[in-house]
Amino acid sequence: MNGVWERVVSAFQCFFSILFHGDIPRDIAQKLLSPAGPVPQASPAAPPSVAPLQEVQPPASEMFNRAVQMLALLQRDGRLIDFLAENISAYPDAQLGAAVRTIHDTCRQALDRYVKLEPVLDSTEDQPVTVQADFDPAAIKLIGNVAGEPPLRGMLRHKGWRVKEVNLPPLPEAAGRMVIAPAEVELS
Question: What is the 3-state secondary structure of the chain?
Answer without folding.
Answer: CCCHHHHHHHHHHHHHHHHHHCCCCHHHHHHHHCCCCCCCCCCCCCCCCCCCCCCCCCCHHHHHHHHHHHHHHHHHHHCHHHHHHCCCCCCCHHHHHHHHHHHHHHHHHHHHHHEEEEECCCCCCCCEEEECCCCCCCCCCCCCCCCCCCCEEEECCCCCEEEEEECCCCCCCCCCCCCCCCCCCCCC
